[in-house]
Write a structure and sequence with these properties.
This protein has 25 helices and no strands. By secondary structure, it is mainly alpha-helical. It has one domain (2-203, 285-499). Helix 1 runs parallel beside helix 7, helix 5 (64-76) crosses helix 6 and helix 7 runs antiparallel to helix 21. It is globular and about 60 Å long.
């Protein structure tokens, strides 16, 4: 089975090389893309961007990859053309992904994964849309960097090495903002600080948690509707229902019910953290908490003063996040898990299937990973699934551990089915740049035009209503079939083991 893993890595490497040099490229801004256009400006003149503060707060938070590209262009003497910047971003991405696979091998050794599960992890990490199609189609992005930072963090956590977690934190500081919020929890609480050593936690009753969830959800929703004047100004972009009031209100009612249930589970998680980990955070580790907290605040303060020109940026980002979450909770119920499955493939289905085991492992690994998961899951509720890239290596590691603890053995047929679904969801077979797409795409911002959905349907925030139903039907049908296959195979092996 290890030979299958090595073959998979070689095939992936062959694909990304061939596709990068011969395949299609995003036609926006001469191949730079939307976000990539601003990263290109920084890579071309890094000194002017930083010294003269000719940079937006959003790009300042993601400046590290552009700095590495600018340095590589200066060292090699290459000119700062779009093509060379694409090559530099692509080469950096390939290196980071290969380093991530090397870390996965060490993680597998540390946690004593079976050979088949190691190969399953390789497949889950490699054969996904952001590491295959998106990576070479639109290379000037920070997405692969976020994935690498996540893998660096899980490697440091599993190996109990604070050095690698600090590296991940400083990388996230200038690459992926959500990591700045989440990674300090892994710094403060190492792997060997278990919750079980701090006594039995007091759990709140589920009735109070449910009541609290419903009150919070509806209060936030009412404030949000009043603030953005949805009840008077119609429906936001990508959801053309304003000319059909009856459908509008039916969707609001259905979406609100599902949103309330989703929020209930979220606040169950919050309540358990409050009753379990938070007291330990403040009581059991006061000195380390205070020292680390002060250091992080000082670093963030320095970064804020040196790069941000607009102090109101943080509230703006928070409003934007709420906009995405509430809009899709109402009008695209289930968007949160749907677009994660659509973006990351069948591994998210296994996360759902093994969720009880996942939470048990997270609890046993201590409050740091618990709080990290909590914060990252909140960010993942944004339907733009790429926001979960930093969390994804943790999900793969913990799901594979859950399967390993259950003594689940991966057969070649099972791996073939998993790989087939992964290839299907990764869109490596799919042509984006049709003549209609290239001739109508806008350089300024994405639109809801059906032609543009050839690319935007992979990003939940830009997916229109029609593609939401199409992809939802596909995910539900394939997902149920795969989980049924997985469950039957697991049950059969359990029966065989019991007989033996």
């Amino acid at each position: 089975m290890r030979a299958a893993g090595r073959a998979l890595i070689c095939l992936w490497l062959l694909y990304v090389v061939i596709f990068f040099w011969t395949g299609e490229r995003i036609p926006v801004n001469d191949g730079a893309g939307w976000d990539g256009h601003y990263y290109t400006l920084v890579a071309r003149d890094f000194t002017d961007s930083v010294v003269n503060r000719n940079i937006t707060p959003t790009i300042a938070q993601r400046i590290l990859p552009s700095a590495i590209v600018a340095a590589s262009l200066n060292l090699t003497g290459a000119d700062s053309s779009i093509q060379n910047i694409q090559i530099a971003y692509w080469a950096m991405g390939v290196i980071m992904i290969l380093l991530s696979l090397a870390m996965w091998a060490r993680i597998s050794e540390t946690l004593k994964f079976a050979d088949g599960l190691r190969t399953l992890g390789i497949c889950a990490l490699l054969v996904v849309f952001p590491m295959t199609k998106m990576f070479v189609y639109n290379p000037i992005l920070t997405d692969v960097s976020a994935f690498f930072i996540g893998m660096l963090a899980v490697f440091g956590f599993v190996r109990n090495s604070l050095f690698f977690i600090w590296m991940a934190f400083f990388g996230a500081l200038f690459t992926w903002p959500s990591g700045v919020v989440s990674l300090p929890f892994l710094i403060i609480f190492s792997l060997d600080q278990r919750l079980h050593g701090w006594g039995v936690a007091v759990r709140p009753t589920q009735s109070y948690v449910f009541l609290f969830s419903v009150i919070i959800f509806w209060t936030a929703l009412c404030v949000y509707l009043i603030k953005f004047k949805w009840l008077t100004d119609g429906v936001p972009l990508y959801l053309p229902l304003s000319d059909r009031p009856s459908l509008f209100y039916v969707t609001v009612i259905i979406g609100s019910i599902i949103g309330a249930v989703t929020t209930h589970f979220t606040f169950r998680w919050v309540s358990e953290v409050s009753w379990t980990a938070v007291p330990a955070f403040f009581v059991k580790n006061v000195r380390l908490t205070a020292l680390t907290g002060v250091a992080i605040v000082v670093v963030l303060w320095i970064v804020w003063l040196s790069t941000f020109k607009h102090p109101s940026f943080a509230p703006t980002v928070f409003s934007f996040f709420l906009n995405n979450v509430f809009r899709h909770q109402l009008f695209q119920p289930g968007a949160f898990p749907l677009y994660l499955i659509n973006f990351f493939g069948p591994m998210i289905l296994l996360v759902i299937y093994y969720w009880a085991d996942v939470t048990k492992i997270v609890l046993n690994w201590g409050p740091g990973i618990w709080l990290f998961f909590l914060s990252q899951l909140i960010f993942a509720m944004d339907p733009e699934a790429r926001h979960a890239l930093l969390l994804y290596p943790f999900l793969v590691t913990i799901v594979v551990k859950a399967m390993n603890d259950r003594d689940y053995r991966i057969s070649l047929p099972y791996l073939s089915v998993f790989l087939g679904i992964s290839i299907l969801s990764s869109r490596v077979w799919y042509e984006i740049n049709t003549p209609e797409f290239v001739s109508t795409i806008l350089p300024s911002a994405p639109t809801a035009d059906p032609i543009h959905q050839r690319y935007h349907m992979m990003f939940g925030i830009f997916t229109d209503y029609g593609h939401y139903f199409i992809q939802g039907s596909f995910v539900i049908s394939i997902g149920f079939a795969f989980l049924f296959f997985h469950h039957r195979l697991q049950s059969r092996k359990a029966r065989t083991k019991a007989v033996a």
